[in-house]
Amino acid sequence: MSSTLLEVTRAAHEEVERLERLIVKELQNEPSSNKDRLFQSHRVHHMIDSITVTTRKVVEIYEDTDNARKDEIAALGGQTSTGTNVFSAFYDRLKEIREYHRRHPAARVVDANEEYEALLKEEPVIEFSGEALAALGLKTGGTVQQRAERLFLMKDTPLEMLDKKHFAKGSRGPEQNGVAADPEVNNLKEIALMEAEISKLCELLEETIERTKENIVKKQALTYEEILEDIREVDIQPDTESDDDDQQIYNPLKLPMGWDGKPIPYWLYKLHGLGQEFKCEICGNYSYWGRRAFERHFKEWRHQHGMRCLGIPNTKNFNEITSIEEAKELWKRIQERQGLNKWRPDLEEEYEDKEGNIYNKKTYTDLQRQGLI
């Protein structure tokens, strides 16, 4: 039945589809242990290999380099060398089917699902070729258990410390593989180990290193800004001219000048918002560049002088107040609030007459003036 190319093609497609469904079903099961997970990986690997081999066979059939597939399709249509004969082709095909069942009387239909379900339960056979051994110059003979034991010796024992009986004949031992106790090799190993440790430490301390960098940048930024503020306070213009009259400072962004007579870095300019202008009417509409300079000026001589001229004490109540009208209005409200708590002797000073009656100073004075007391 499977001797025809079309039947072989159909069976190959069916096998590929079954294996794909089986892989999906296999991966839907969560292994309960590492051993089961390893077996599952091997089973999936074997099924993928089977799909690859079967697919290659199907591709070769479709390529039809010998025209066998084309001839078979033509034969199914009744086309022969003598012409088209559909009935002859039908009876030839029927004869072939009967002959197959005559030669295989015990043939039965096998449920492919049952056959593939068994694959999910069996343990895969893992071949140990002994190559992870030949590369090290060790013996590759013996049973799988013996080869595995030789390989596991390498886990805890250096190659140069192994007994000579484990090495293959003709091998000079560990020296043949270039792993002898060479000082240069040992130095390289120590360097590699040190590099790995440093890399690990950098990963663990990455956050601390980044915070340290940020703190250094902030300190440098504060130093630059304090110098700029000192220059502005004493109204000193930095000398931006070089000894060479022909040399000009390139400052297309018009950044403020630093203590060295050169524009400050742009990142520093953006970090402290030196592009923001704050004007204070109390200071005579003087401009302050940057939020920090604006907050500091409330305690500086220029703002204090302006407040004294207005007759207003320069207290923390007037911070962030730059308008003269706002400052006067706030000072008026403060005076009114203080007036409610002010000592008023005419109303609050008490007097007592001969009969023990208590009066305030104003009432007592009026009664005394009228001769009633």
Automatic annotation (TrEMBL):
GO biological process: mRNA splicing, via spliceosome
Keywords annotated in UniProt: Coiled coil, Metal-binding, mRNA processing, mRNA splicing, Nucleus, Phosphoprotein, Zinc, Zinc-finger
GO molecular function: RNA binding; zinc ion binding
Protein's UniProt keywords contain Zinc: yes
Chief location bin: nucleus
Example of a GO cellular component annotation carried by this entry: spliceosomal complex
Pfam families: SDE2_2C (PF13297), SF3a60_bindingd (PF12108), SF3a60_Prp9_C (PF11931)
Ranges for domain Matrin-type: 278-309
Name listed for the protein in its UniProt record: Splicing factor 3A subunit
The species this protein was found in: Parasponia andersonii (Sponia andersonii)
